[in-house]
Write a structure and sequence with these properties.
The complex is a heterodimer of chains A (432) and B (185).
Chain A (H helix, E strand, L loop, with lengths): L2 H16 L5 H11 L4 H29 L7 H25 L4 H25 L6 H19 L3 H16 L9 H7 L2 H9 L6 H21 L8 H19 L10 H16 L3 H9 L6 H23 L11 H14 L4 H25 L2 H21 L4 H30 L1
Helix pairs in contact in A: 1-2, 3-5, 4-5, 5-6, 6-7, 7-10, 11-12, 11-14, 11-15, 15-16, 16-17, 17-18
Chain B lengths: L1 H34 L1 E10 L2 E2 L3 E8 L3 E3 L11 E8 L5 E7 L10 E10 L3 E5 L4 E3 L4 H11 L5 E8 L2 E9 L2 E2 H8 L1
Antiparallel strand pairs in B: 1-3, 1-10, 2-3, 3-9, 4-8, 5-6, 5-7, 7-8, 10-11, 11-12
Chain lengths: 432, 185
């Protein structure tokens, strides 16, 4: 429900009654239907945001002041400061539990402060004893000591900081063997909170959307870090499968009638699918993959295969739910997979390039048709832009004369103008 | 209310764990400083910084390699045990490297990370004490002082116990780094 629109409607109601446009009885019916507009909530959200930003700044300030390495402070004084800071923050959280249990502002800000303080305390002890632990183990200790706060207090900011923290751990750490795969267990620790406290409660509330964005971002970064060794050759196929999976998850479970930014899975997945499809239309990309096509390791095949199986499972689910029109947009891993098969027979990459260009063209035409059918100028223009980009980029692959390029550009320009003109005219007719 | 009490109890346990970790760290390192054996290592300081812990001097040691004692196979990043010996001048160096913890030797070995193996019998490694945190204004000057006194040897005294080592003090000549810098002002 658009709160601003309802507010505007309520403001209009007296005037509409005065002018006799609607009967007085309708006013109550409308108010019953939409309910009261909760003005307080907006204020509280802003207050919570400022409180969180405030405590993060204070916490970071404390860390920086301590990072000065005061020569005058003895080891005992430093220990007292570290423990004292932690105690103050813990007392604040304890007081919140006892006195302000229902206050979201207090819960979020005191927990965030405690989380930052844990980091400051460990850093101060490390500094005092010249501990040379790498940055990643410091982050890991910090995050593991903080994650219970998310569950005890039911707070979002520490959950976000935790996700960022464990991702930094994965990026910075150097672990022998499969040590980096621990990141999946660490990310999964946030799972129960994400599902039961956020997703189950309200899919499109600000905290859910915010955590979803950060979760997706952290997932992709962690994936790149954890499987660095298995992304040497099949990376295009693997990422295509990953983006398609993200897109399907978005369509299956987060596809409400809300704004694009409130559907991070769909937004990231679709952008990734289209972006990757676009990259795969370049001959150079296929040529570079083809150069060492026969050196692909078993782990790469296994990873790509597992992801493709997941894509098929979710694709079947989409078909069962009869929302299979999205399959075409998420079909990039299948197209890329066929491209790799073609590459097997011809490492020059020509066939694969032609296939991906055809797929990209089909996608663009589908978007244009959808825009035209629904009368959405924005969608139509996105499709046209995709076609234009596809044609323009092909000039980088093959040499054409300046006259030919000029003519294509003029034609593209005219088709943009014509399509928009037709759409605007059609809209006007509908309004009439 | 009952729920709130449970929450308080759970938070109390969490708070204790959160306090215990830094306190354990203090106890662990303080114990080594008080009861560990003192070694002196020759070092060459450089000055970077850590976003959370401030500026420090990156301690680089001479001859960070040693002969492998057993027939152990080491991989890069693997933990190993290095025996510490003192030369005639009293400076510490690593005399051998093993894949098992030396028995009965509490103060004369240190846990290290193997970097790479040379000729199947020499292990190159990184010592665990490689930082000396300093006041932010002084750290760059400490590095500068070291560079402009190339003839002077920089040394670090380290306390070692049960395979762990903690830096006690950084020296240039016979003065601590702070004394040296103060003298130069």
């Amino acid at each position: 429900m658009n709160k601003k629109a309802v507010e505007w409607l309520y403001e209009q109601l007296p005037e509409l009654v005065d002018k006799g446009i609607i009967p007085t009885a309708s006013v109550d019916l409308i108010r019953d239907h939409y309910g009261a507009v909760d003005k307080k909530n907006g204020g509280k959200t802003i207050l919570t945001m400022f409180a969180i930003i405030g405590v993060i700044l204070v916490g970071m300030g404390i860390i920086l002041i301590l990072a000065h390495n005061w020569e005058q402070l003895s080891r005992m004084t430093r220990t007292l400061i570290a423990v004292g800071l932690l105690l103050v923050a813990q007392i604040l959280v304890g007081a919140t539990i006892w006195f302000k249990k229902d206050s979201n502002v207090w819960a979020e800000s005191s927990s965030t402060f405690l989380m930052v303080t844990i980091g400051a305390s460990i850093a101060l002890i490390g500094q005092t004893y010249h501990i040379a632990d790498d940055f990643s183990s410091f982050m890991l200790t910090w995050m593991l000591l903080s994650i219970p706060l998310v569950y005890l207090m039911g707070v979002t900011t520490p959950a976000l900081l935790y996700l960022i923290g464990v991702t930094i751990w994965a990026i910075n750490g150097e672990f022998p063997g499969i040590g980096k795969q621990l990141i999946w267990a660490l990310l999964a620790l946030i799972g129960p909170y994400y599902y039961s406290k956020l997703v189950k409660k309200n899919l499109y509330a600000n905290p859910t959307v915010l955590v979803s964005w950060v979760l997706i971002l952290c997932f992709y970064i962690s994936f790149g870090t954890a499987f660095r060794g298995a992304l040497g050759h099949l990376y295009m196929l693997i990422y295509a499968a990953l983006f398609a999976l993200t897109y399907f998850v978005g369509i299956l479970w987060f596809d409400g009638p809300v704004k694009v930014w409130q559907r991070p899975f769909t937004a990231v997945g679709l952008t990734g699918c289209i972006g990757l499809s676009f990259l795969l239309t370049f001959k150079d990309v296929w040529q570079s993959i083809g150069r060492d096509f026969y050196f692909i390791g078993r782990s790469e095949y296994l990873l790509a295969f597992s992801l493709l199986v997941l894509v098929v499972i979710l694709g079947l689910r989409l078909m069962n739910k009869k929302i299979d029109r999205h399959l075409l947009f998420g079909g990039v891993p299948v197209v890329a997979g066929v491209g790799f098969l073609l590459l097997y027979f011809d490492v020059s990459g020509i066939n694969a390039t032609v296939l991906c260009n055809a797929y990209m063209l089909l996608l663009s035409v589908m978007i244009i048709l959808r825009g035209a059918r629904k009368g959405e100028i924005g969608t139509l223009n996105i499709g046209m832009l995709m076609v234009a980009a596809l044609i323009i980029m092909r000039f980088f692959d093959v040499d054409f004369s300046f006259v030919a390029r000029g003519l294509v550009f003029v034609l593209l320009g005219f088709s943009f103008l014509a399509a928009n003109w037709v759409m605007v005219r059609r809209k006007k007719e509908v309004i009439k | 209310m009952k729920n709130n009490k449970l929450l308080c109890k759970l938070f109390f346990i969490l708070a204790l764990i959160q306090l215990a970790v830094p306190l354990y760290m203090v106890w662990h390192w303080e114990d080594i400083l008080q009861n560990g054996k003192q070694y002196t290592w020759i070092t060459a300081p450089v000055d970077p910084y850590d976003a959370f812990r401030g500026r420090y001097i990156d301690l680089r040691f001479k001859d960070m390699k040693g002969p492998i004692l057993s027939k152990a196979q080491f991989n890069s990043g693997q933990t190993a045990y290095a025996m510490i010996t003192e030369d005639q001048k009293g400076y510490a160096f690593i005399s051998s490297i093993s894949d098992s913890r030396p028995e009965g030797e509490v103060n004369s070995y240190i846990k290290i990370k193997v970097s790479y193996i040379q000729d199947d019998n020499i292990a190159h490694f990184v010592l665990p004490f490689k930082r000396y945190y300093m006041q932010e204004g002084l750290a760059p000057r400490a590095e500068q002082a070291y560079r402009s006194n190339a003839g002077t040897e920089a040394m670090v005294s380290v306390r070692v116990k049960n395979g762990y080592g903690v830096v006690e003090e950084l020296y240039i000549g016979d003065k601590t780094i702070y004394e040296y810098l103060r003298k130069g002002e």
